[in-house]
Amino acid sequence: MSEKRKRATIREVAQATGLSPAAVSYALRGIQTSEETQERVRAAADELGYEAHPIARALASGRTGQVGLLCGSLEDYWQQSLAVGIGRALLARDRYALIVDAGGDPERELALARRLRDQRVDGLIVQPLDPAAALWAELAGTVPVVSIGDALHGGRAQGEVVFDNRRGVTLALEHLRDLGHERLTVFTPTRASTPDRPADVHVNAEAERLGLHVDVVVVPQSLAAATEVATRVLGGPGRPSAVFCFADSIAYGVYAATRELGLAVPGDVAVCGYDNHPMSALLTPPLTTVDWDIDGIVHSAVRLVVDVIDGKPRKRRVVREPSLRVRASTGGRAR
Known about the structure:
This protein has 335 residues and is of the alpha/beta class. It folds into 3 domains: 10-61, 434 Repressor (Amino-terminal Domain) (Orthogonal Bundle); 66-163 and 293-323, Rossmann fold; 165-292, Response regulator (Rossmann fold, 3-Layer(aba) Sandwich), CATH 3.40.50.2300. It contains 12 helices and 12 strands. It has helices at residues 10-17, 21-29, 35-48, 54-61, 77-92, 106-118, 135-140, 165-178, 198-210, 223-235, 248-261, 294-309; strands spanning 66-71, 96-101, 123-126, 145-149, 159-163, 183-188, 213-218, 242-245, 270-273, 288-291, 317-320, 323-325. It has a 6-stranded parallel β-sheet with strand order 2-1-3-4-5-11, sandwiched between helices. Helix 1 crosses helix 3 (35-48). The protein is elongated.
């Protein structure tokens, strides 16, 4: 029987790199050393098979190595992709994502945020259902908080990756207006308890500016629920000529509804989404949608939260600019 290999020590990594054990420890934690040194130390540690004991590391640093990721609703396929990307990006920085799902419920979101704080996560990334909740300012005083999508109440979040929602809404509505649509329905997951989300506010303002008649309808993000609501709206009197969905996952429900009703996309109803999920280009017809560059969002959010945890905050606010991916679902010319 072969003898089990002894766990490599931090001193062996130090000898392999020509650094002191203290410098190696800093590099492995991503602090007080250059990125070049950190990469060199991690490469040597991987080659030697060095693994820091998690309990010892937590006791020494006062950290758990865990970052909470609070998702508004993992029924939304885009948020699923976001969670996968953030989890992998954190793992590459020697952190672990503790992913929880608010299920579209603002009260549950706040309860889970408190629970993550009480579990002593090193930081919290949240895509808030209710950015106006007073709790966010309280949490930010005890744990580093980075928000994705909307700025949080109180302005005390240590990092924000916010979307230029006015621009995103304008791109979609101007595109539909230019194609001759005057009566639109907007499907949004926003609930009555969170009425001040910027994207929804911009819809009304931009519709008035463009001379469009817009009906805003609340739609759950699950495929079955979105299909049910879309079937009711599109099968009733005064059917809109176009639907703008604040999530591609909701647009998938619209597609399912059109098939049930025997309607053609875009001949009978044009459909536009809002987050460019990878599946959207594979639909028949492919979905026109607003693209926020999910890879860029992941990179910015993880960099912000890790930098704050490590005590080296950089730019606190990152604004994501959208682009419109025009495809056949609106009948426009693809680009």
